[in-house]
Design brief:
The chain has 184 residues and is α/β, with parallel strands linked by helices. 33% of the residues lie in helices and 22% in strands. It contains six helices and six strands; from the N terminus they run E-H-E-E-H-E-H-H-E-H-E-H. The chain has a six-stranded mixed β-sheet, with helices on both faces. Strand 5, helix 5 and strand 6 form a beta-alpha-beta unit. The longest helix is centred in the C-terminal third of the chain and has 20 residues. The structure holds guanosine-5'-diphosphate and magnesium ion.
Length: 184
């Protein structure tokens, strides 16, 4: 797996990270919150950015993450291989208030692994943690699945910001750690 482009300098690193998961789980809003500190309550489908490049500080070093959003193709389960190509990290998102989106995680994981290296750094994200009253998937179920599949896990809310930065940073940091071990 190639984590880096040309030079062996960390400053030049650009990690591609993809957002995947069922439609309307909050992928675009997670990215909007992380990259621009915005939230859009009415976003129906996303005809938005293809990707967003974000600088992240890790151990005093600046790392760039290029985070890709699906632009709505996932509604037809038609995420292209170009979308996945070269990704070294993934946020696998479900909505804690819709069990179906959690049940579909296995399919997304399979798809991810058909297009990416098995070592792609992946975090399972249970989004909409602000909607406790509508919860259909317990935190323990999320944790167990993540453990079984060897994924990181976090519940987030793009609405109230909780854990959003942490979730993205966790992925980038782990990629960075793997990568810096590789060039040492
Ligand atoms: P995507 O299709 O996965 O990109 O989902 P969107 O980001 O477009 O969000 C779908 C809907 O869920 C929108 O109406 C959002 O406002 C709403 N939404 C997204 N994240 C959250 C969240 O953390 N909490 C709540 N309450 N609503 C959210
Ligand atoms: Mg979207």
């Amino acid at each position: 797996m190639t984590f880096y482009s040309k030079e062996d300098s960390v400053d030049d690193y650009l990690f591609k990270i993809v957002l995947i998961g069922d439609s309307a789980v909050g992928k675009s809003n997670l990215l909007a919150r992380f990259a621009r500190n915005e939230f859009n309550p009415n976003s129906k489908s996303t005809i938005g950015v293809e990707f967003q490049t974000q600088k992240i500080q890790i151990n005093g070093k600046e790392v760039k993450a290029q985070i890709w959003d699906t632009a709505g193709q996932e509604r037809f389960r038609a995420v292209t291989s170009a979308y996945y190509r070269g990704a070294v990290g993934a946020l696998l998102v479900y909505d804690i208030t819709r069990r179906r989106t959690f049940d579909n995680i296995n399919r997304w994981l399979k798809e991810l692994h058909t297009h990416c290296d098995m070592n792609v750094v992946t975090i399972l994200v249970g989004n909409k943690s602000d909607l406790e009253d509508g919860r259909e998937v317990s935190m323990d179920e999320g944790k167990s699945l993540a453990e079984a599949e060897g994924l990181f896990f976090m519940e987030t809310s793009a609405l109230d910001s909780s854990n959003v930065n942490r979730a993205f940073q966790m992925v980038v940091k782990e990629i960075y750690n793997i990568f810096s071990r590789k060039i040492m």
